[in-house]
Amino acid sequence: MITRRTFLYGLTLGTLATSLSAEAQQAGKVYRIGHVSPVDFDRPERMEQRSWPAFIQGLRSLGWIEGKNIVFERRPTHDLTSLQQAAAEFVRIKVDVIVRAGPEPRWSRK
User: Fold this and answer.
1) Three-class SS state of 37
2) Are strands 97-100 and 31-37 parallel, antiparallel or unpaired?
3) Tell me, what's the pLDDT at 5?
4) How far apart are CA 53 and CA 109, in angstroms?
5) Per-residue model confidence (pLDDT) at position 20
6) 13-44 pLDDT per residue, tens
7) Mean pLDDT score of the chain, rounded to an integer?
8) CB atoms within 10 A of CB 34
9) pTM across the whole model
10) Which one of 32, 39, 71, 103 has the lowest number of neighbouring Cβ atoms within 10 Å?
11) Which residue numbers in the chain have pLDDT < 50?
């Protein structure tokens, strides 16, 4: 049974694969991926969720290596305001794609 999170990561990975591989022949281009998550990036033991390592491995299998041809711009989003601020910053710095990782935030539940 496929979970919502697995589906969303697969969808994001597929989008990245098609958009980034279409331009993969450009030498020297480093793509910027905006990554928002409700986890604390200063505590990597909390960031290691089940789906994130699979996402990174999927990118790696397609030839996308962090620090080589992709760079993650990471922003923690603990509430709706910080999510809006992160999204505005990503638009300002012109990231190529935005990825949201982590559990469903408590503030988004009805």
Assistant:
1) strand
2) parallel
3) 60
4) 26
5) 54
6) 566 665 555 555 556 889 999 998 876 555 55
7) 76
8) 21
9) 0.63
10) 103
11) none
Contact criterion met (CB below 8 Å) for 22 and 58: no
* Type of residue found at 68: K
Of 66, 41, 67, nearest in space to 56 by CA: 66
Tokens of 92: 């300002």
**CA 40, CA 26: separation in Å to the nearest integer?**
34
Amino acid in position 49: Q
Instruction: Name the token pair of 102.
Output: 């982590």
- CA torsion, points 98, 101, 104, 107, in degrees to nearest 10? -60
Q: Which structure tokens are listed for 1?
A: 């049974």
Cβ-contact 76, 41 below 8 angstroms = yes
What the block records as the tokens of 94 is 């012109």
Distant-in-sequence, close-in-space partners of 12: CB < 8 Å, separation ≥ 6: 55, 97, 99
Three-state secondary-structure class, residue 93: helix
Instruction: Tell me what pLDDT residue 103 has.
Output: 63
Tokens linked to 88: 């505005």
Query: How many C-beta atoms surround the C-beta of residue 66 within 10 A?
Result: 12
How many residues are given for the chain? 110
